[in-house]
Design goal:
Elements (H helix, E strand, L loop, with lengths): L1 H9 L9 H7 L2 H23 L2 H4 L2 H12 L3 H9 L6 H15 L7 H51 L2 H59 L4 H6 L16
Length: 249
């Protein structure tokens, strides 16, 4: 009986399995912050997937309606279509802003292409700003993980200096768990966010290129109207350089 007891005591004891929540709890406060950051990252990824769609940034029905209005010469109707809140998209914001600028300018539609370039650049920056939030999380994630690592290492060295025996081993293991778990969580957040940031950036560049081709087609439609851009712009009067002693007219 004694031999059996000794054999059982000598047998290796299996450690109780830990759940994911147990590991998160072992990581301390920084670990919970990293979990919260991961939920924010997932939310931003879903938002980007919904926003960075061709049907969202250049709805086919709106594009077709805009093309029909431009072919019929109804630039006021095209402007109203672009400014309607329900039609808000990359295409309508770029083209609507350019049409508004041409309507206010004394040069009329002669400024169309420069207006499209400026509004297009502004809207492209706006789209990229949606993706910047994921890039920020990709950069902050490892930093938070490093913060948890430093906190864990500080506690580990403190336990080495102040405690002895079994209690020191227990505290040391606890603080090392904090350090390693936070490091792992920071990398788990940063690696996918870095990859998705690059993927979304390439997708946005490709999407902008496709919509730019569509805007170019609409621009040619407007320029090919009877009379061309000059009729729409009206007669352009060049500024007169005053001669000495003669007032400018």
């Amino acid at each position: 009986m004694n031999l059996l007891t000794l054999a059982q005591d000598a047998a290796p004891k299996t450690l109780p399995s830990k759940s994911l929540l147990d590991y998160i709890h072992d990581g301390g406060t920084v670990s919970y912050i990293l979990v919260l950051v991961s939920f924010v990252a997932v939310t931003l990824v879903i938002r980007n997937i919904l926003i960075f769609r061709r049907s969202k940034q250049a709805p086919p029905q709106v594009s077709q309606r805009l093309s029909d209005l431009l072919k019929s010469g109804d630039t006021e109707g095209a402007t109203a279509l672009c400014l309607a809140p329900e039609n808000a998209s990359f295409l309508t914001r770029v083209f609507g802003s350019a049409l508004q600028r041409c309507a206010r300018s004394p040069f009329g539609f002669l400024e169309l292409r420069s207006a499209l370039e400026e509004s297009g650049q502004r809207e492209a920056d706006r789209l990229h700003r949606y993706n910047d939030s994921i890039g920020i999380i990709a950069a902050v994630g490892p930093m938070l993980g490093l913060l948890g690592t430093v906190i864990g290492m500080i506690g580990a060295f403190r336990s080495i200096g102040q405690l002895e025996g079994a209690s020191r081993s227990t505290e040391l293991a606890s603080f090392m768990s904090i350090a390693l778990i936070c490091t792992a969580e920071g990398l788990i957040i940063a690696i996918p966010c870095t990859i998705l940031f690059s993927v979304f950036r390439r997708h946005v560049d490709h999407l902008i290129s496709e919509i730019a081709e569509q805007i170019e087609t609409l621009t040619r439609t407007l320029e090919s109207m009877p009379g061309g851009s000059e009729d729409k712009a009206g007669p352009v009067r060049r500024p007169t350089v005053p001669r000495e002693g003669v007032p400018a007219r």
